Amino acid sequence: MKKKLLLSGLIFLLAVIFAFIGYLFIIFIGDYVIDEEKLVMNTASKLVDIDGNELTKIYVENRELVDLSEVPDYVQQAFVSVEDQRFYEHHGIDMKAIGRAIYKDMIAGSKVEGGSTITQQLAKNIFLTNDKTFLRKTKEAIIAINLEKRYSKKKLLEMYLNQVYFGHGAYGIKSAAKLYFNKDVSELTLEEGALLAGIPKAPSTYSPITNVEKSKERRDVILSLMGDQKYITYDEVVRTQGKTVKLQVNKKQESPWLSTYIDMVFDEAEEKYALSNEELLRGGYTITVPLQVKLQKSAYDLFQRNEYFPGTDELAQGAFILMDNQSGGVLAAIGGRDYVPKGLNRLNVPRQPGSTFKPIAVYAPAIESKQFQPYSLLKDEKLTYGDYTPENYDNQYVGEVSMFDAIVASKNAAAVWTLSEIGITESKEYLQEVGMPINDQGLAIALGGLSEGVTPTQMANAYRTFTTDGNYSEYHLIQKITNQAGEVIAENLPEIKQVYSPQTAWDMTRMLQHVVSDGTAQNGLFQGELAGKTGSTSFTGIEGATKDAWFVGFTENVVGALWMGYDQTNKQHYLKHGSSYPTKLFKDILTTAKWEQNVAFSIPDGVNDLESPIRIEDIKKVNSKYTFKPLGLITLTLEWEAQNDDRVEYRIYEQTENEQKLVGTVTGTGFYEIPYINVFSESTYKVAPFNVQTNEEGVATEFIKPSLFSSN
């Protein structure tokens, strides 16, 4: 008997020792099995506008983390009731539940009940695969025990509720509450919490969106379980089970109109702030962007309409970007008519800019260098420079033309001549300053003839310099990024540099404003003041065909660029018309969005406004007569019909036998007197209008001989 007792005691002691060693082994192994990084759950980031309004979410898994204190007690109890009734009693593995499950499985002859605890489910979902092997179940148990050792029950339940999948792309209870009921998790009612608790077992089966009857049946079962476990009274069970399922589904809207903008945010986060795409998708960041929804949607919708794109077929493409003048924030961006996420963003594809390049490559540098002024005369002749002979698009040349008129009429010959005068080196230095370094060395730069081209984004930001008193800074999409703790981890802090004087910038603005009102950019309607420049490049394979068509323009507050063309232009794919189409589309985008309507340009402090151009008219007739003045003096009076523009100067010339000379000038009037005249003189007189802006003299009248005397 003593031997038996001794043996039993020894066996018991060995069992205890082995159990203790096993427990130590589990704890020891757990340190290697649990990867703490995996407990950091993927969390959706969101884009918000400047006012904090949510625009969209970006994520791998649509999850927003919630603290357990925000989850109502009865919602927590609903999950515990159905998933792990002894959650607050076991230490990771519930032996009673496992035994009960085995017993029921044996009676049923198949698997009818699971024995996994909430902690085991957390272990499986975060650390393990879904395979059914014994080794996987062993790892699950080891991890569960160690999780219980490291974390409190509240923390484990919080992690579970944040991790579990609720169907339709919603991960975690906060996203589920938003999806199914469009409310915060803290606002969930008892019946809503019970319904959500029933979904994770089989989201496709128990989703109230796809199967409301089954979801209600499972909800009612969970309510009964809550009653059995004394979480709620049976009276509450019956009353709550009698309620219908009421959803307010907050379906995520498909937003193809945002695709370009989101991808550009991804690119900027990586390039400027070293935040990878994956980190942005998983990190739960709040990204503040300057996007304006009305403008973005207006641009996207109009880009879908074929009538704006005059191609040989419906495959003609386009790109559009709009920025805030002062901040450089991108308000809208369209990378193509059929842009797909991570696709070809045509805002970043270099194109030949055509005549839109003239203001930044030629005219602004010419004014800033003090070599020319807006009304300086430029040569408008068909000249040859080495082997390069630029031609005006209409093959019309006037000999001399003011810079103002050269811009308005888009004179090619004048632009190239001006570049030859200021020098290619000077031009390239200014281009470098506005974000357009180029390697080209020829005078074709004046007309946008570049070896590699420039992008719509570069063009818009370069023109923005005209709107900021000549200051240049980089554009941006990301205003700031905050992490889940609300800390700012990235912020746009622009570096500003002066490229042009405020006077040069304003002179360019006024001239480009006339391009829209009087020149090549008149197509379309816009109820506000708009400045800009058109541009196009020809496709030499077919007469009249266009390869690239542009409009780059700005208002008092926004600046943008719009390009049209084909990704590959050939004899089957080309534009049938030029820059009038992007000009109209640009105006219509702003008009449809009701943006910048009836907004005028304001003159910056300290600059002189650019006068409108003086247009000289021929003098039809000059009348002359002698008149008597007091003291017996005789005066010759010349009269003609003056123009309505009182800035016009009139020059009076006298012709004698020996010479012709200027005897006087008057401004804004058609009257001139020559006192002490010799009535017996054979002198004749003529009048010529004179443009004081360009220093051009108009066509003079024929010389006339004064008429007979008349009384005063």
How are the secondary structure elements laid out?
Elements: H1 2-33, E1 45-48, E2 54-58, E3 62-63, H2 73-83, H3 95-108, H4 118-127, H5 134-150, H6 153-163, E4 170-171, H7 173-181, H8 190-197, H9 203-206, H10 212-228, H11 234-241, H12 259-273, H13 277-282, E5 286-288, H14 293-303, E6 317-324, E7 330-334, H15 358-368, E8 377-380, E9 399-402, H16 403-408, H17 412-422, H18 424-433, H19 456-467, E10 471-472, E11 480-482, E12 488-491, E13 497-498, H20 502-518, E14 531-538, E15 546-554, E16 558-565, H21 580-592, E17 622-629, E18 633-640, E19 649-655, E20 660-667, E21 671-674, E22 684-691, E23 696-697, E24 709-710
Parallel strand pairs: 1-5, 3-4, 17-24
Antiparallel strand pairs: 1-2, 5-11, 6-7, 6-16, 8-9, 10-13, 11-12, 14-15, 15-16, 17-18, 18-21, 19-20, 19-22, 22-23
Transmembrane segments: 7-29
Domain Glycosyl transferase family: 52-226
InterPro entries: Beta-lactam/transpept-like (IPR012338), Glyco_trans_51 (IPR001264), Glycosyltr_51/Transpeptidase (IPR050396), Lysozyme-like_dom_sf (IPR023346), PBP_transglycosylase (IPR036950), PCN-bd_Tpept (IPR001460)
